[in-house]
Task: inverse folding
């Protein structure tokens, strides 16, 4: 009677080159997996650094925008102040013009008498 063993076994008929090739491929796969993992870790660290830089840039640009808007507000206030001063000056010039006209008319009337 022949008993059959269904378990895995290595036969002498398998060439050593094939065994070596399988072992070499397994080793190369392990090296590739380790390299892939270290690359992933480096990429993760790079992304974390980049995220920090982007966050700092956002804060910096936000601060710049706030300073710019503050300057724009100051310029607008100065423009409004200048417009008010110009309006007062125009009103004063108009008043002086009327006074000079009255003075001229008065002087002409007195000269004709």
Result:
């Amino acid at each position: 009677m022949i008993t059959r063993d269904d378990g895995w076994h290595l036969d002498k008929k398998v060439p050593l080159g094939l065994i070596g090739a399988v072992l070499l491929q397994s080793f190369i796969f392990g090296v590739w997996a380790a390299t892939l993992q270290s690359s992933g870790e480096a990429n993760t660290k790079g992304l974390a650094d980049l995220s920090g830089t982007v966050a700092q840039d956002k804060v910096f640009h936000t601060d710049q925008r706030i300073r710019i808007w503050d300057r724009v507000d100051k310029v607008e206030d100065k423009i409004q102040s200048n417009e008010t001063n110009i309006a007062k000056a125009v009103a004063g010039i108009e008043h002086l013009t009327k006074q000079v006209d009255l003075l001229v008319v008065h002087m002409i009337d007195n000269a004709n008498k």
